[in-house]
UniProtKB/TrEMBL annotation:
Domain CENP-V/GFA: 4-77
Keyword tags: Metal-binding, Zinc
UniProt record similarity statement: Belongs to the Gfa family.
InterPro entries, A to Z: CENP-V/GFA, Mss4-like_sf
Ranges that cross the membrane: none
Protein name: GFA family protein
């Protein structure tokens, strides 16, 4: 697993401007919720572009414009390597957070 900052996007507000034909989609493994999408030309991780949910995660580095972000939570911290500290007070979850 890799570590990245993800932005959860409301599907109806998202517009892919180019490159849809180059997106490769992989189904999630057991225990994971989202499909994984990658650019088949450069290998960039694109998040869950191909799914059906109301919202979905996209790596923050995929956006062209600056984003005003703050970390709300960390997920899968049980899989985090010991040498990688979490240096903020955001909530931490061993797996996906559960919605109330």
């Amino acid at each position: 697993m890799g570590a990245a900052t993800f932005v959860f996007v409301v599907r109806e507000n998202f517009r892919l401007v180019a490159g849809e034909d180059a997106i490769a989609i992989y189904m999630p493994e057991d225990g994971y919720r989202y499909t994984r999408s990658f650019c088949s030309k450069c290998g960039s991780a694109l998040g869950e572009i191909g799914g059906n949910g109301e919202s979905f995660p996209i790596p923050a580095n995929c956006f062209d414009d600056p984003l005003d972000l703050s970390v709300r939570f960390h997920e899968f911290v049980a899989e985090k390597p010991d040498w990688l500290p979490i240096c903020d007070q955001a909530k931490q979850f061993d797996r996906h957070p559960v919605s109330n």
